């Protein structure tokens, strides 16, 4: 038999973000922001795993949901302050926000 790990070591804080968009280029711009901004910043901050999901057919489409797992609550908040965008991010599309 294998020893079970304690419940305290398996705890995590799960964050679910919901990006509701309009049809058109807003979906492309949001996807590009997630790919070039949010995911690299999360990786630099040590936030893993992170997932991005969208729906083909669903009520209130189009939308993208992101799911991130943190080991505890405090590391989940300082991401914006601790991980400024990289130069490659700034060289990307300049029209992310209309």
Rg calculated over all Cα atoms: 16 Å
Q: Helical amount among residues, as a percent range?
A: 25-40%
- Choose one word for the global shape: flat
Distance between the termini: 58 Å
User: Based on helices, strands and strand pairing, what is the structural class?
Assistant: alpha+beta
Major sheet: order of its strands? 1-3-2
Strand segment tally:
3
Question: What is the string of SSEs from the N terminus onward?
Answer: EHEEHH
Would you identify the regions where 5 or more consecutive residues have pLDDT less than 50?
Answer: none
Mean pLDDT: 75
* Beta-strand share of residues: 15-25%
Oligomer: single chain
Short description:
This protein is an alpha+beta fold.
Report what the structure shows.
The protein is built from 3 helices and 3 strands. With 98 residues, the chain is α+β, with helices and mostly antiparallel strands. The chain has a domain of 64 residues. The radius of gyration is 16 Å and the shape is flat. The N and C termini lie far apart (58 Å). The model has no long low-confidence stretch (mean pLDDT 75).
């Amino acid at each position: 038999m294998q020893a079970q790990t304690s419940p305290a070591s398996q705890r995590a804080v799960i964050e679910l973000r919901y990006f509701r968009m309009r049809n058109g280029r807003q979906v492309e711009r949001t996807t590009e922001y997630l790919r070039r901004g949010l995911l690299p910043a999360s990786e630099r901050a040590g936030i893993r795993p992170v997932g991005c999901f969208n729906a083909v057919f669903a009520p209130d489409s189009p939308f993208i949901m992101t799911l991130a797992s943190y080991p505890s609550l405090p590391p989940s908040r300082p991401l914006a302050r601790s991980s400024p965008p990289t130069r490659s991010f700034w060289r990307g599309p300049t029209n992310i926000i209309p």
